[in-house]
Structure formats: C-alpha cells, structure tokens
Amino acid sequence: MHLEFERSGGFAGLTVRAVLEAVELTAAETAGIAALPRSGRAARRAGARDVFTYQVTLVDGHHRQVHRFSDLDIGDAARPLLERLARAAEPPRRPGL
Q1: 94 in a domain, yes or no?
Q2: Does residue 97 sit within a domain?
Q3: Is residue 20 part of a domain?
Q4: Can you give the pLDDT at residue 30?
Q5: Which of 25, 27, 51, 84 could form a disulfide with 71 if both were Cys (CB 3.0 to 4.6 A apart)?
Q6: Which H or E run contains 5?
Q7: How many structural domains comprise the chain?
Q8: SS in 3 state form for 41-97?
Q9: Among candidates 49, 51, 47, which has minimal Cα distance to 74?
C-alpha cells in the first residue's frame, strides 16, 4: 500500500505532492491513517483564508480511498502522518540557502 499526498493553499498558495510507501511509516504515523477525515469542511470561510487543503489517497492494489480536508478538520491523531507527508513533499534545499 502507498499514500499519494497533495497539499495546497496556505499563505503562498503553493501545491506540493509526495508518494510514500506505507512500510516507511512509524507506528504513530500509521495510526494516523485511520484518523484522516473522510470529507472536510470548506476551507474558504471568514478567518480561514490561509489554511492548507489536503488530499490523501490510500492506494492498495486496485482499491483507492480518497480523503479531502483542510487544516480545520485535522485531529491530533492524524498530525504525525500529515507532518511526515508534508516533509516528504518539500523540495530539496539547495546548499547555502
């Protein structure tokens, strides 16, 4: 099984993507899979302009399960997983920057 991750929005409005194999996850990150929101609230509401929106797709063979949500929907149990996916999506930093 692997996870396809996409995060967009935020202050800069950038979109980042990553693919991570489930076997690379720690126990806390794996537990976050079950805690992912199924479908979240709309991120565009008063006072929530710079929130991130996420799409996490779990792919197991031919079965795909898609989770779409925003920062407003994330519980504590899902945070380690999303932090790991976000780190995997960051572009490599160039030396000296």
Answers
A1: no
A2: no
A3: yes
A4: 93
A5: 51
A6: strand 2-9
A7: 1
A8: CCCCCCCCCCCEEEEEEEEECCEEEEEEEEHHHCCHHHHHHHHHHHHHHCCCCCCCC
A9: 51
The parent domain of residue 29 ranges over 2-89
Which tokens belong to 42? 């709309």
CA angle 88, 33, 51 (to 5 degrees): 60
Residue 47 has which token pair?
A: 């006072």
Task: Label residue 60 left, alpha or beta by phi (over 0 means left) and psi (-120 to 50 means alpha).
Answer: beta
Render pLDDT for 19-69 as a digit per residue (tens, 0 to 9).
999 999 999 999 999 999 877 665 555 556 788 899 999 999 999 999 999
The pLDDT tens digits for 58-91 are 999 999 999 999 988 899 999 999 999 999 998 7
Give the pair of three-digit tokens for residue 92: 């490599």
More confident call, 88 vs 10: 88
